[in-house]
Amino acid sequence: MKTLKKVELHLHLEGAAPPGFIRAKAAEKHQDISRIFDAKGAYSYRDFNGFLRVYEAASSVLTSPRDYAGLLAEVLAECAEQGAIYVELFVSPEFCGGGDLSAWRDYLAAMDEVAQAARRDGIDSRAVLTAIRHFGPERARKTAICAAETGGGWVAGFGIAGAEDAGRLPDFAWGFDCAREAGLGLTAHAGEWGGPDQIRDALSLGVSRIGHGISAVHDPALLRDLAERQITLELCPGSNVALGIVPGWAAHPIARLADAGLRVTVSTDDPPFFHTTLCHEYQMLADAFGWAEDEFRQMNLWAVDAAFCDGDTKAALR
Ligand code: HPA
Ligand code: ZN
Q: What are the chain's domains?
């Protein structure tokens, strides 16, 4: 699986932080976050809300542009190790500088330098600036401003993650309109925990991609709509299995979504939290559905089509 060239569209930067990296930062800053690790040193949580709390506690030790630059370098090196040639990272100015534009510019400058160096080494990347739904629309507005003001280079998109039961997606329309006017690509987490209506709400914001979107499988009319509009699903099967949204790999709706004519792609979401890697995702799908290189190559072509980078970059990725 490592030799297959892969394009990953859905990877949270903080969520890709190895536990050892976070422990080292905590020690450096004399912060005690030992409660978020189990006896083996892995991230430990019981359910999705617990996961979000552990995610935020881990992120709390990342407090400087240097921290984020070091994290990005490690994460991109691991992506390259997994055979990825292009990755889109969800990065949250709400964690990098608290939504302040001037602070965000400092974080971005540090990460941009790392991203350009990694690109020269064969792994290209873009950032999708990501609002956190349970932090509310006001903070999302600041994230959208950061995205609109710094878009065009490494920053290529705007999105929203977090708890789907917090507020309604239309409450965040201002941020999506602002980012669209700035020429950024749009995506939203929807239909991971929530039902088909969450996905319809995401479509009303003008997104071209949906993060997860697995509940669409229960709604034939929505499936037809997603297929007709050529919306791409950023699927993260290992994440869904680890969080208990689906009972196992063979039960994951990815094959049914593909059969319904949807553009399905494969990503890892938050790999160390879910004990997965990009190669592991592909291997588990190969085992569960009998898929081989042809199927995976098609998914990667869809991922390139849906990527938020420019046309020349896409042509090189194909
Ligand atoms: N869902 C929602 N919010 C998140 C996730 C996720 O899978 N990962 C990090 N933030
Ligand atoms: Zn996600």
A: 6-311 (3.20.20.140)
